[in-house]
Amino acid sequence: MKTRKEKLLDGLDPSKLIGAEIGPLHNPLVPRAEGHIIYVDHKSAEELRETYANDSFVKLENIQVDAIWCKHTLQEAVGLYFQARGQTPQSLDYVVASHVIEHVPDLVTWLHEIRSVLTSTGEVRLAVPDKRYTFDYLRRTTQIEDVLVAYLNRARIPNTHCLLDFCLNEVAVNTVAAWQGTLDVTQLKKGHTTAGAMHVARDAMQNGTYHDVHCWVFTPASFAQLFVALAEADLVDFACSAYFEPVQFTNEFIVNLRVNADKAAVLASWRQMAETVRMAEQQAADLAEQNRRQELLALERIKWEAQADVAAQAEAAARHAMEAARHAVRPRVTGIRSALKAIAYAIKS
Q: What is the pLDDT of residues 38-69, one digit of tens each?
């Protein structure tokens, strides 16, 4: 089985390519020693260190940022990276983004900007959180109309609906329990009050504050269907080149994309992913049903064996009681017989 990194870099040799990793923070997938890689984020390294100063899980000294994608477009940010090194701007061979796509306020424009920095055969590698195993558990999956609203508004911060949906429905989820189907939905604790959610939304609306939330919510099936819809609307220039389903007890799936100018091929690739996911989920459902039936049969067998044991014990107890009764009656019978013989003898005399 391929490792996570092998899936994300499937078919790529970073040592021979120029790539970018979006949002690597302190733990990049592609270290500098492995190839020419540009680390892209929405803040400078200093600003990120300040943001995560109190987060014990983040190694502040490992945070590196080469290009800031915020006020500048990605193409401008990458161009400035090359210019700062006295180099002519170049197109990139690939872009990697792990748990990033769900955060971007305008998904369509984000994809378009990534396309603008890639070669005609460029690749995009995405690790995407699966809502079924994350704090998005209670949220509905993103639909095409959600994405189009953000695109038409050219959203630069998460829109009001995204903020409210996230704040009102974010819950702490045990990933293992979610996989095992033992999660008790009634016991899930929400992270925000209604008043708190409204405060966040008002702050964004009135002050333009950027609140980092999951704007978009996916499962493998919903992701594929969304990209089918985007391809039908001619809003995506990427075909699905590979899909890797969630590994048990993890919370993500991996989708690899490749630039493709053939619109029919793009649409067909996303439909193929949708079918692949459907078949995988059907197989999983069939296996779960088979396991359920086997468990029921096992329980019935245990129940039957338990009943048989009880019956055998009851039968043994009954035999023991009858034997004890016979032993108790035998002396009395013997005494009666002796008495009758004595009476008979007396009568004859």
A: 999 999 999 999 999 999 999 999 999 999 99
Question: pTM value?
Answer: 0.83
Cα dist. 285→130, 246, 254, 275 in Å? 17, 15, 21, 15
Determine the Cα angle at 103 with ends 100 and 104, to 5°.
95
What are the beta bridge partners of residue 252? Answer: 129
Task: Name the nearest CA neighbour of 111 among 264, 200, 235, 249.
Answer: 235
Residues 6+ apart with CB under 8 A from 137: 131, 171, 173, 178, 183, 188
3-state DSSP call for residue 298? helix
Cα distance from N-terminal residue to C-terminal residue, the chain: 106
Q: What is the mean pLDDT of the chain?
A: 93
Confidence of residue 35 (pLDDT cuts 50, 70, 90): very high
Give the DSSP letter of residue 30.
S
Chain centroid to Cα 248, Å, comes to: 9
Burial of residue 83 (CB within 10 Å: 0-12, 13-18, 19+) is: exposed
pLDDT bin (cut points 50, 70, 90) of residue 21 is: very high
Residue 345, both tokens? 């003898």
